[in-house]
């Protein structure tokens, strides 16, 4: 007859299970806070002829990572809406900011695109994007994409779910709804199903 496991035996099993979980997922457990820290440490803004380092005066609760590029037509169509929505949320008291993650072919193109579109938000330093694999994994298959991160670095919404493009309108709705649940009195501003908001990047 097989004997019942002893208390000491159960304790050893639980200890081994805990060790296995810790071994399998330390990176996942630390990824969110590390990503927020990496973002904060690599911010720049566009001047007339160069990119200038930027630091938060106070880190926002929700970051909207905008993945785009100067060569991307839908990106040009989307940015004016993004500028208006960001402004409406912040004017209503939302603790949020956009950060541009460039998929341009050069820093010069990135700076030109930011200045042409008059982006009022910072960007990730172009020279450091390749060294941030966790950030690059959020980009999706093609721009434009918008990814919302909470204060802990958790992804609240993304225009890409794996290789399936769900569009940017659901992300914009989540952005407004999440901030409303955080006791910010906002109404979803300028959310519509226009072509720039939901068109597949390849269309």
Structural description of this entry:
The protein is α+β, with helices and mostly antiparallel strands. It has a single domain, classed as 3-Layer(aba) Sandwich (Glutaredoxin). Helices cover 41% and strands 18% of the residues. It has 7 helices and 9 strands. The protein has helices spanning 7-24, 26-41, 73-91, 107-116, 133-136, 169-181, 195-198, and strands at residues 43-46, 51-53, 62-68, 96-102, 123-124, 145-149, 155-158, 160-161, 164-165. The strands form 3 sheets. Strands 4-3-6-7 form a 4-stranded mixed sheet, with helices on one face. A 3-stranded antiparallel sheet has the order 2-1-5. Strands 8-9 form a two-stranded antiparallel sheet. The model is unreliable at 13-30 and 184-198 (pLDDT under 50).
Helix content: 40-55%
From the alpha carbons, calculate the radius of gyration and give it in angstroms.
21 Å
User: Spans with pLDDT under 50 lasting ≥5 residues?
Assistant: 13-30, 184-198
Look at the structure and give the CATH class.
Alpha Beta
Structural class, please?
A: alpha+beta
CATH superfamily annotation: Glutaredoxin
| Major beta-sheet overview | 4 strands, mixed
What is the number of domains?
1
Overall shape: it is: globular
Alpha plus pi helix count? 7
Strand order of the largest sheet: 4-3-6-7
**Average pLDDT level:** 82
CATH-defined fold name: Glutaredoxin
The number of E-state strands comes to 9
Order of helices and strands: HHEEEHEHEHEEEEHH
Please give the alpha-carbon distance between the first and last residues.
68 Å
CATH architecture: 3-Layer(aba) Sandwich
Strand content: 15-25%
């Amino acid at each position: 007859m097989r004997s019942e496991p002893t208390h000491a035996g159960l304790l050893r099993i639980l200890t081994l299970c805990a060790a296995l979980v810790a071994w399998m997922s330390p990176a996942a457990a630390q990824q969110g806070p590390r990503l927020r820290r990496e973002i904060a440490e690599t911010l720049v803004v566009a001047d007339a002829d160069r990119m200038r380092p930027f630091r938060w005066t106070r880190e926002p609760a929700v970051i909207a990572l905008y993945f785009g590029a100067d060569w991307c037509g839908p990106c040009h169509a989307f940015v004016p809406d993004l500028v208006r929505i960001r402004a409406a949320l912040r004017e209503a008291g939302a603790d949020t900011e956009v950060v541009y993650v460039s998929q341009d072919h050069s820093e010069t193109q990135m700076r030109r695109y930011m200045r042409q579109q008059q982006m009022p938000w910072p960007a990730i330093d172009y020279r450091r994007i390749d060294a941030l694999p966790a950030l690059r994994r959020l980009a999706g298959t093609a721009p434009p994409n918008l990814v919302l991160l909470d204060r802990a670095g958790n992804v609240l919404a993304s225009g890409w779910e794996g290789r399936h493009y769900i569009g940017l309108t659901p992300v914009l709705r989540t952005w407004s709804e999440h901030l409303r649940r955080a006791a910010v009195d906002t109404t979803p501003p300028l959310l519509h199903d226009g072509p720039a908001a939901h068109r597949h990047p390849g269309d």
